[in-house]
Amino acid sequence: MRKRKNEKQLTKDTDGNLLNGEVDWVYAEELDVRSNYSWSPEGSQIVFLQTDETKVPTYPITDWLPTHPEVDHQKYPKAGDPNPIVRLGVVSAKGGGTKWISLTADTDIYIPRFGWVKDGVIWAMVLNRAQNQLDLYFADVATGKSRRVLSEKDEDWVEMDNNFQILKSGDRFIWPSWRDGHTHLYLYSFDKASPLAAEAKLQNQITKGDFEVFSSEGLDESTGTVYLNTNYGDDRQRRLCSVKLDGSDFQDLTKGTGTMDVTMAPDTKNYVSQWSSVTTPPSLSFCRTVPNRLPDGTGCEVIWKSNSLDALHLAPPQFVDFKAEDGTVLRGMIFLPPDSAGKKVPLLNNPYGGPQGQSVRDAWGGVDYLFNQILMRDGIAVLVIDNRGMGARDASLGRRS
Q1: Strand pairing partners for 226?
Q2: 283 with 300: CB under 8 angstroms?
Q3: What residues form DSSP beta bridges with 270?
Q4: What pLDDT does residue 298 have?
Q5: Which residues pair with 380 in a beta bridge?
Q6: For residue 376, what is the enclosing H or E element?
Q7: What is the predicted pLDDT for the residue at 76?
Q8: Residue 293: is its pLDDT beyond 50?
């Protein structure tokens, strides 16, 4: 490969089992990691994850499309196999040696998230092999020493997300947890001048209630307002909400029903909203967090929407609830053939059944939705049910049932 102008190689490892800042199978597939390095705030250093796959078994993946099939041997740990050994290193953007960070004596761990508290101090999350304990460390780059400032434990497992955030004030952070049975956000403080001096202190729980927080979309520190994606009011929906850092003034900012996914501007004054429902394909809108008295009163202007599907004569499904033997309510959705009332029709039960996922949603289902429409027209009913262990449910109805 041709070297680009002003390009500088910072790591010199030649062993193919060592990945510096790259993503391996485990981190990309299971921990939702897309990059394994982070620039320091002033841009003079990079912290990166080194992944050592030496002991990870290989798995043959065959490409059958060519006339002569090709086999690619990918590092892939099956249950009980050794995982990659990982560690954090910091290197200067000018080059030179790597400073390795000491976090824990345990080597059978994951480091799923890391970044910078400030120049010279990094933060890192350490997840144990059983994935039921997540520890937050602060580490001093100059000495390589670290301190565990927070530990989160769960009797089943700790779910990874991207809601951890160091505030610009430099003395507080937002921490997600399912400790009260729902995924909510908590505000912690620490010593800004000496982050490793003591454990972080819980200030308050930011969100509370019978709903899940999926993501923090934006934070306006000038007003202390956090904008959130939640299923407030209906676990089948996604809604944009706001709340103050002290837990006060919770508001549902979404008009109507359905699913809203937003991309918010850094200053939180504007955002782009993608909205859909179980019967309506997606549309995009440009919105303002403070409505400017637009005719619809929502502060949003539609900038794109899908073509009308009226010509397809789609029949909407029906949301239905079932009770398990122990009384647990299970969410369901049924597609019934036209003119089937009072008749016996064949039924296709189409469950997913895996953890975290959620099939019964008030959101556009795309290809699956249209395929179910075809089956309906052929006189076949389709039933989709979410079991106890699927996502967007609280602890009593979710994975612990």
Answers
A1: 219, 243
A2: no
A3: 288
A4: 60
A5: none
A6: helix 366-377
A7: 94
A8: no
Residue type, 257: T
Measure the CA–CA gap between 251 and 259, rounded to whole angstroms.
Answer: 17
Distances (CA, A) of 289 to 223, 238, 241: 13, 17, 10
Both tokens assigned to 85: 């050994």
Please determine, for residue 295, whether its predicted confidence score (pLDDT) is greater than 60. Answer: no
Neighbours of 391 (CB within 10 A): 20
pLDDT digits (tens, 9 = 90+) for 148-160: 999 999 988 898 9
Q: Give residue 40's pLDDT band: very low, low, confident or very high (50, 70, 90).
A: very high
Question: Do the Cβ atoms of 83 and 77 come closer than 8 Å?
Answer: yes
Higher-confidence position of 211 and 394: 211
CB 379 within 8 A of CB 336: no
The DSSP string of 94-114 is T----EEPP--S--SEEEEEE
Q: How many angstroms separate the CA atoms of 343 and 58, rounded?
A: 54
Antiparallel, parallel or unpaired: β 329-335 and 259-264: unpaired
Q: Which of 85, 80, 181 is nearest to 130 (CA)?
A: 80
Q: Is the pTM of this model over 0.90?
A: yes
Q: Which of 9-13, 99-103, 394-398 has the highest mean pLDDT?
A: 99-103
Place of tokens 């080597």: 107
Would you state the torsion angle of the CA atoms of residues 374, 379, 385, 391, taken in this order, to the nearest 10 degrees?
10
Residue 374 φ/ψ, nearest 5 degrees: -65, -45
Q: Could you tell me if 293 and 274 are in contact, meaning their C-beta atoms sit under 8 angstroms apart?
A: no
Query: The tokens of 339 are what?
Result: 């003119």
Helix/strand/coil for 60: strand
Strand spans (E) along 269-354? 270-277, 280-288, 300-305, 318-323, 329-335, 347-349
Contact status, residue 57 vs residue 133, Cβ threshold 8 Å: no
| Distance from C-alpha of 131 to C-alpha of 65, rounded to nearest angstrom | 38
Q: Please, what sign has the CA dihedral across residues 337, 342, 347, 349? A: positive
Which of 273, 210, 289 is closest to 239 using CA atoms?
273
